Amino acid sequence: MIELLTPAEMGRADALAIAGGVPGIDLMRRAGLAVADACSRMAGHSGQVLVLAGPGNNGGDGFVAAKVLRQRGYRVEVLLLGDPGRLSGDAALAFSEMQAARLTAGILSQDTLDRVPGQASVVIDALFGAGLSRPIEGVAGEAIDRVNGSGVPVLAVDLPSGVNGASGEAMGPAIRASRTVTFFRLKPGHLLLPGRQLAGRVEIADIGIPASALDEVHGSEAGKTWRNDPALWGPAFRPPCLDGHKYARGHAVVVSGPALSTGAARLAAGAALRAGAGLVTVATPPSAALVNASHLTAVMVRSFRGSGGLAEMLADRRLNAIALGPGAGVGDETRALALTCLAGERAVLLDADAITSFTAEVEALAGALSRRTGARAADVVLTPHDGEFARLFGESAVGASRLARARAGAQASGAVVVLKGADTVVAAPDGRAAVNDNAPAWLATAGSGDVLSGIVTGLLAQGLDGFDAACAGVWLHGRAGALAGPALTAEDLEPALRQALAEFFSRAG
Ligand SMILES: NC(=O)C1=CN([C@@H]2O[C@H](COP(=O)(O)OP(=O)(O)OC[C@H]3O[C@@H](n4cnc5c(N)ncnc54)[C@H](O)[C@@H]3O)[C@@H](O)[C@H]2O)[C@@H](O)CC1
Ligand SMILES: Nc1ncnc2c1ncn2[C@@H]1O[C@H](COP(=O)(O)OP(=O)(O)O)[C@@H](O)[C@H]1O
Ligand SMILES: [K+]
Hints:
Layout: H1 7-19, H2 24-43, E1 48-53, H3 57-71, E2 75-80, H4 89-100, E3 105-107, E4 122-126, H5 138-150, E5 154-157, E6 179-183, H6 188-191, H7 195-199, E7 201-205, H8 212-217, E8 225-227, H9 230-233, E9 251-255, H10 263-274, E10 279-284, H11 289-295, E11 300-303, H12 306-313, E12 319-324, H13 332-343, E13 347-351, H14 352-356, H15 362-370, E14 380-383, H16 386-393, H17 402-413, E15 416-419, E16 425-427, E17 433-435, H18 448-461, H19 466-484, H20 490-508
Parallel strand pairs: 1-2, 1-4, 2-3, 4-5, 5-6, 6-7, 8-17, 9-10, 9-12, 10-11, 12-13, 13-14, 14-15
Antiparallel strand pairs: 15-16, 16-17
EC number: 4.2.1.136, 5.1.99.6
GO molecular function, one term: ATP binding
Cofactor: Mg(2+); K(+)
């Protein structure tokens, strides 16, 4: 279940299920039942539940849940936003079924606000879900503030009200839930921030939408979107075969910065080796050769002079993946080195200073990418954090969601873009994208990004394509961070990566 559906795609999946013979009210009944089940788990055997219901189908799910919970013996109060007479379709039907079960709804207004959250031990947030179309205002916003301020646990239906399901952005006031029940598949907004944090623990309920609906709707609009998970890239990442030798697993190169900034390249090189590249060489300017050589053992060291020297080294076609950027220094020299890397037929990863060296000149980078030839022409990965992204692509994309920005960056550059952060997004120029959610905040530490660059480069050296290498690298980096645990430093990631890989390969069989 790694596919992510936008609210619009989810609406089409609903419509397809209904057209295929599953009545909409049945979908709503199953949705409401799943919400009631989750609420029972939160509230225990008895208690008081407040259901805040909105004017659309999200409210409809709330009416079903309210009815079921009342039948189970909970004390249930329903406050409806708007006029019951304006409910329509399945929501109106669910409302009348709730009334038939002797449960009436109050109207959410200034007069009833003091009942929010009242004595409730759980609040069910069924105000708005996939249909949120503008920031929440007025009494609904006040109710949300009261619920958030109360500390009473909240169960959100589909999405925390106020969160945009496509982007994860909070449109005005937004519910802070401890749990969310959503249906069929996750939406990007469940994984992107702040949506992920506002949703709490998310459960996916099967409401009877056939899997075949997925083939028709997933990615029919702006490209396919997934949760970043081994199910996405695992098949492309195989352990070494029995008769394999190291040369079959590629030879990665990491370009070092000058004498006083070499650590970043060594972190990356160590990670590339640990990620499984057969051989790794640090390409170093002569001034830094001694410091690099005195710190490296399994990783080899070769010195080069300027972009001409690097080009000579890269005449060796066995060097099949190269990383440039960590500690490289910003300016014309790094830019020339980047163009030298891109001119060859190997996979390339550009990070940090290599990205900043193209500030506001994405066309120059895109031009170099478009001239690439050979089987690995498309295997170029950029790994900017938000600041580096804005430098390269300009401010025009600022304001769009991180998912939309990463996609726009990939399209503008022709590279796979890894937009790093707590909710790292990997996007390919053809519109495919994956949202990562396994990284602990402890990963935000100096040198962590250099390790990520190394992991991805090690995977590129083993032959994974740009998108798979980037997704796998980001996931393994996050998993290594989780295994290394609190107070980790970048140096701790390499040994933890070994454990992450062991876990991955043992599960992959
Ligand atoms: N058959 C279906 O389509 C199913 C839908 N389901 C539920 O239906 C939800 C989607 O239903 P809807 O499309 O009706 O959307 P919502 O119920 O999320 O909201 C739509 C309604 O809210 C209004 N609205 C939007 N933003 C507003 C704002 N900021 N302030 C005030 N009013 C606002 C709209 O005009 C519309 O009346 C899902 O989130 C899910 O909970 C589930 O019942 C499963 C089946
Ligand atoms: N709050 C966070 N939670 C999880 N991961 C994070 C968080 N903030 C940053 N990261 C990750 O940490 C790494 C930091 O990389 P980067 O910004 O390049 O820093 P550095 O240059 O110091 O290595 C990235 O992989 C990023 O995705
Ligand atoms: K909701």
